[in-house]
Amino acid sequence: GNSVTQMEGPVTLSEEAFLTINCTYTATGYPSLFWYVQYPGEGLQLLLKATKADDKGSNKGFEATYRKETTSFHLEKGSVQVSDSAVYFCALLPGGSYIPTFGRGTSLIVHP
Amino acid sequence: DAGVTQSPTHLIKTRGQHVTLRCSPISGHKSVSWYQQVLGQGPQFIFQYYEKEERGRGNFPDRFSARQFPNYSSELNVNALLLGDSALYLCASSLDGGNTIYFGEGSWLTVV
């Protein structure tokens, strides 16, 4: 079956620190990969996506590269801000399917 | 343009009762999907509808049902509520059920 594994949180960083949130997946075929962000009390917002191997998704200073050989899609940001504090979800959508699979989420806390 | 809108935002129900949650997709979007997000977990897929037809169903009991109306809005119904149904219910819309979906802010259901 399909699954997404994210690193356990919370991840606690100081402002301007480098961020990495690990995500690995198991899927048949060639899925599309996504990162979503959820701010407190809100729904999920699409942060970035990649649809094929070696694609890099990027948005708002965040980026992630689709690595087929390691089945990974790690999220990175060079310099985090307090406003980046949120829960981040990695997700996959198998090719030809309409049913996504989400990871459990990783909470990020950024201190001033 | 308005995003995905859901109602009600919060509600409290008693075990055994029935609940109806509503969703209006982004204008022009023909696909609506529903997710259950239990605290501390990622969203779990419940249903997807496209052009008023059910296109996908997740691993949820028959107590959960949904429909999509001619204007593409949707309802999620849950019968015989259990304490374990307490969760954030998210609706998402997309043009055609493809890989870019937009979430609403969700309906918080508490079953007591």
Helical residues, percent of chain B: under 10%
Approximately what portion of the residues of chain B adopt beta-strand conformation? over 45%
Mean pLDDT of chain B: 93
Number of strands of chain B: 11
Structural class, from helix and strand content of chain A?
mainly beta
Main sheet summary of chain A = 6 strands, mixed
List the chains of the largest interface with their residue counts.
A-B, 24 and 26 residues
Oligomer: heterodimer
By secondary-structure content and strand pairing, the structural class of chain B works out as mainly beta
**What overall geometry of chain A do the principal axes of the alpha carbons give?**
globular
N-to-C series of helices and strands of chain A: EEEEEEEEEEEE
Average of per-residue pLDDT values of chain A: 94
What would you note in describing this structure?
- The complex is a heterodimer of chains A (112) and B (112).
- With 112 residues, chain A is mostly beta strands.
- Chain A has no helices and twelve strands.
- Chain A has strands at residues 3-6, 11-14, 19-21, 23-26, 32-38, 44-50, 56-59, 62-65, 75-77, 86-93, 101-102, 106-111.
- In chain A, the strands form three sheets. In chain A, strands 2, 5, 6, 10, 11 and 12 form a six-stranded mixed sheet that branches.
- The relative contact order of chain A is 0.34.
- Chain B is mostly beta strands and 112 residues long.
- Chain B is 0% helix and 51% strand.
- Chain B has no helices and eleven strands.
- In chain B, strands 2, 4, 5, 6, 9, 10 and 11 form a seven-stranded mixed sheet that branches. In chain B, strands 1-3-8-7 form a four-stranded antiparallel sheet, with no helix packed on it.
- In chain B, strand 7 (64-68) and strand 8 form a beta hairpin.
- Chain B is globular.
- The relative contact order of chain B is 0.33.
- Classes of the chains: A mainly beta (112), B mainly beta (112).
- The interface between A and B is medium-sized, with 24 and 26 residues.
